[in-house]
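Practice set, problem 2.
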Amino acid sequence: MRRSQGRPKGGAVTSMEPRSGEPLSPPSVGRGMGGRSLTTLLEFPCDFPLKIMGANADGFAQSIAELVCVHAPDFDAATMERRLSKAGNYLALTCTVRATSQAQLDALYRGLTAHPMVKVVL
C-alpha cells in the first residue's frame, strides 16, 4: 500500500491505494458495533488476545473470566495472564479466546466495556 502524494497539514494520510501490480485479496465483511458494515482482516476461527485492565480489587479476575466464558464458552480461565501495575493499584488481564466470528468479538467487547470494574479493553 502506498500513501497519496500530498499530505494535508498534520501529516494525515488522505488515501491508501495499492501499488500497481499488487494483488488485492478482498477481506471478509461483517457487522460491527451499531450494526454498521465493516471490513475485517481476521480469518475465523482464530485465537484473539484481549487485554482488560481494571482496579486491583477482590473478584475482578474471577468476574472477567466468567464474563468471557459467557461469550466464548471454550475459554479456559487457567490460561488468563495477570499483571499488576508497578504500584499494585491496577490489574491487567490477558484473555486469549478462540474467536469464531466478528459478531462474537463485538458482543464480548461490549460486555467487557460495560462491566463496572473495567477501565480499558484492548
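Problem 2, part (b): a different protein.
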Amino acid sequence: MTAARRGRRSGRAKVRDVVAEQQPWQQPRLRFEPIRAVSDDELEAIHLASLKVLSETGIDFLDETAQRQLAEAGCSVDGNRVHFDPELILSLVAQAPAEFTLHAPNPERNLHIGGDVITYTSVASPPFVTGLGRDRRDGNRADYRDLLKLGQVLNAVHTVAGYPVEPMDLHPSVRHLHATHDMLTLSDKVPFVYSLSRQRNLDAIEMTRIARGVDEATFGTEPSLYSVINASTPLRYDTVMLHGIQEMSARNQCIVITPFTLAGAMAPVTVAGALVLQNAEALAGIAYTQLVRPGSPVIYGGFTSNVDMRSGAPAFGTPEYWKACLVGGQLARRYRVPYRSSNVNASNSVDSQSATESAIAVWGAVMGGVNLLLHGTGWLEGGLLTSFEKMVIDADLLNMVTAMLQPIAIDDAALAVEAIAEVGPAGHFFGTQHTQDRYTTEHFQPMVSSWANFETWVEGGRVESHQRAEALARTLIDAHVEPPMAVDRRAALDEFLTRRVAEGGVETDY
C-alpha cells in the first residue's frame, strides 16, 4: 500500500473515530428543580407590574390587521397603541400549549419542546464569521454551508436557530430561498425561518412541507418550523414581526416570542424593571399568537441583559444576565409555557472571557429551567461574530451539561462494595474489572481537551485548545454526508427553488 493510500485511510479512520466519540444524539432532561431566584411574592410583583404596564401604558402594534383583531377581542385600541385588560391577556396566554413536538424532515430528529426537556441550537444571525485558519470576514454562503454541515454532524446541536452566519453574498431578494434550500438539504434537523416578510415566511413554510413530504393538512397539525419574533423594545411590535406571527401561528407553526431588553438602554436599569418590561412584551406577543390561532405552539423568550454604561455596548454572561435567566424561567413556568434562553458572551475571540461568560449564561439558562437554548454553539462578540472553533468548544460545554444531567446510578453494582473490598487499603482501581467495564461509558470524554500531561503537551508542540478545536472543526465538516431525501421530494424542492428564484423572490429596496 502506498503512503498516500495509507494517509487517506488513516484520515477516514480519524474522521470516523472523532464522530463516534461524540455523545449520542439525545435531548437532555432537567432532573432536578430549577432554581427560584425570587420568592413567590416577588414573582407575583413582577407579574402584576407587567399587567399594569399593558393595561395603563399599553404597547404599540404596528399592523392594521393585528389592531383590528385585538379590538375585536376586547382590547382598547387607539391608533397603534393597544391596552390589554389583565383578564383578557391571561385567558389568551392560558390557551398556549405547555408542551409540543417539532417535527423534523428526519423523524428521528423530532424535538420535544417543554416540560423538563432541553433543546440546544447553533448560533444564528451574526453578520461576520471567523476561524478555520482565516480572520474575521463577512458572512458568505460557503461558510454558511460549512457551518450547517458542522451543526449537522455535531450531536450536541439539535437544530439550527436561523442562519449560523448571514450569507451576505446572496442577494436579499432570494437569500431566504437559497439559504432555506441549503438548510433542508445539508441537514435533517428542524429548520428555522426569519420573519422578515410574509412571502419569506410562506416560502419557507412550503419548502419545509415539501422536504417533509406531507400534505398541507398534516403540516397544519404537526409543527415543523419555528421563528423568533422580537419585540422592538420598549413596547412595540413592528409590522414584519406581526406578519410573521400571522403566517406562522395561523398554520400551527412555532413562534418564539423574545423581547430584547437591555437594562440601562432599551429597558430600566434595574434587573427587576427590565424583567417587568420583558414580561409585559412577552405576554402581549404570546397572547397575540393565541388570538391568531388558539393552541398554536409558542415559547416564552427571555433575553434580558445589561449594557456597559461606559460605552452602551451590550454585555453578556454578566451577573445581571444570570439573574434574569433564572427569573425568566420562573415567569415562563408561572404561565405554563416553554422557556427560551441563550448561550451568549461579549468576547471578541475564543478566549477565557468567552468561555467564562458562556458557562455563566448556559448555567443560568439550565438552572432557570430552559427548554430551548438558542445560540448554543459558536457565538462571539455579542452576536456579531460566528466562530467555527467556538462552535466545537461550546459543543463540549453542552455535552458536559448533558452528562451532568444524567441520573447518578445508585444500585449494588454502582455502590461498588465488592470492588472496594477487592482493592482494599492502599490500592488503586485502574485495573479492576469494575473500572474497565465502566470508564468509557460513565465518564464524559471531551472532544477538544487533549487530556495530556505537561510533558506530553510540550513534546507535542503545545497545541492550544482553540487550535485543537480548529482541527476538529475541519474533521467534522469533512465527515458531513448529505442526509438522504426521497427523490420526488428533492425534485419538488429543487423545482420550487428554481421557480421562485426565476420569479425574483421578494421585493427589496435594493
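Answer key, part (b): The chain is about 45% helix and 15% strand. The CA atoms of residues 115 and 286 lie 18 Å apart.
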